[in-house]
Amino acid sequence: MSRFEGIDLTGVGYARDFELRTPEGQVRRLVDYQGKVVVLFFGYTQCPDVCPSTLGELKLAKQRLGAAGERVVGLFVTVDPERDTPAVLKDYIAHFGPGMEALWAPPEALPALAQEFKVFFAKVPRKGADGYSVDHTAASFLFDDKGRIRVYLPYGKPPQALDHDLQQLLKGG
Known about the structure:
Helix content is 25%, strand content 27%. It has 4 helices and 10 strands, in the order E-E-E-E-H-E-H-E-H-E-E-E-E-H. The strands form 3 sheets. It has a 6-stranded mixed sheet. The protein has a two-stranded antiparallel ribbon with strand order 2-3. Strand 9 (139-143) and strand 10 (149-154) form a beta hairpin.
């Protein structure tokens, strides 16, 4: 039986690394977060429900962990770089508190990144000023403090599942 509430991905051959940029243009790789437990989520700033609720749940989980929550970093990776400019990303992620970062990949690099993480995203035309929404995989990837993928936590799990899995990873599990 798995020690995680999410799906145990320990030892899989994907979701191994990334090369993304901060809103300020700095390059980030997974190695930059060694010593921290990482929660990575793909989404977009105009998402009406899944993205803000996932980031809000992570913010609350970090608070419930108390001082240990400072060892957790949340990474929000946009699948809509056309609208999610660096300025938009910086403003959006600020709403979710410290220890959260927004990252982006150049549009031409996004398909390879999605393939590495086995995530789906696609523009869906819609009426209105925005012209489209983006369907995307709704799950969080949890990495241990050595940068190894450990857990796939699907959207909709109760908050206690995230709390439990973060506690396991913070203990070295």
